[in-house]
């Protein structure tokens, strides 16, 4: 008889959510473009469930030119109107505008500091923060690291980057390992 696979309870049994949990969430990410994509998607997720974003992620990739920051930074009012008419994404004017602002800020960071990866990972000292949670109730919504990240991102012109959004981003991109200790992914990403 096959051994039961234990997962973090938040992913439930939804196949897309399980796949995301098993293959992406918490895996240390160091690619500038993917880090930018996650930051934009986390901003769109504010006030919604991550499941909603996952089901629209491919639509977001198409609508936002595969998260090409150079293209997004040059979006015109006409492009913004087409995004706001696109039922495949979250049609929120402030979040769409923030994505354009964030693309410009991202490009500034890459130009002045050389790497968005190094810029973000500085808040964990370049290492994964390894937590040892046994219950979802123990997971914080924010930490001193996410507070520092949020403060710096805001200072550098980013929008929709509050501490809670930054912590969710840190979890998703593997800056912190918040898989519960009994989850089959905990040791694999540790």
Q: What's a concise summary of this model?
A:
The chain is 54% helix and 2% strand. It is mostly helical and 190 residues long.
Keywords:
190 residues, mainly alpha, Endonuclease III, domain 1, two-stranded parallel ribbon, 2% strand
Write a structural description:
The chain is mainly α. The chain has a single domain (28-189), classed as Hypothetical protein, domain 2 (Endonuclease III, domain 1, Orthogonal Bundle). The protein is 54% helix and 2% strand. It has ten helices and two strands. It has a two-stranded parallel ribbon. Helix 2 packs antiparallel against helix 6 (93-113) and helix 2 crosses helix 9 (163-172). The radius of gyration is 17 Å and the shape is globular.
What is the topological layout?
Layout: H1 15-23, H2 32-45, H3 50-63, H4 69-73, H5 77-84, H6 93-113, H7 116-121, E1 129-130, H8 144-155, H9 163-172, E2 176-177, H10 186-189
Helix pairs in contact: 2-3, 2-6, 2-9, 8-9
């Amino acid at each position: 008889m096959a051994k039961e696979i234990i997962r973090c309870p938040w992913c439930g049994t939804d196949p897309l959510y399980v796949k995301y949990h098993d293959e992406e969430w918490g895996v240390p990410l160091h690619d500038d473009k993917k880090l930018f994509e996650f930051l934009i998607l986390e901003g769109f997720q504010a006030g919604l469930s991550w499941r909603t974003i996952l089901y629209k992620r491919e639509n977001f990739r198409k609508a936002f030119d595969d998260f090409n920051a150079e293209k997004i930074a040059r979006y015109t009012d006409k492009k913004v109107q087409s995004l706001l008419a696109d039922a495949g994404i979250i049609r929120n004017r402030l979040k769409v505008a923030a994505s354009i602002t964030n693309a410009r800020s991202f490009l500034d960071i890459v130009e002045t500091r050389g790497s968005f990866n190094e810029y973000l990972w500085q808040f964990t000292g370049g290492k994964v923060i390894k937590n040892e949670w046994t219950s979802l109730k123990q997971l914080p919504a924010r930490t001193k690291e996410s507070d520092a990240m949020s403060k710096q991102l805001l200072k550098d012109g980013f929008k929709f980057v509050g501490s809670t959004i930054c912590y969710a981003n840190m979890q998703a991109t593997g800056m912190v390992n918040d898989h519960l200790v009994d989850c089959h992914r905990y040791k694999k990403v540790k």
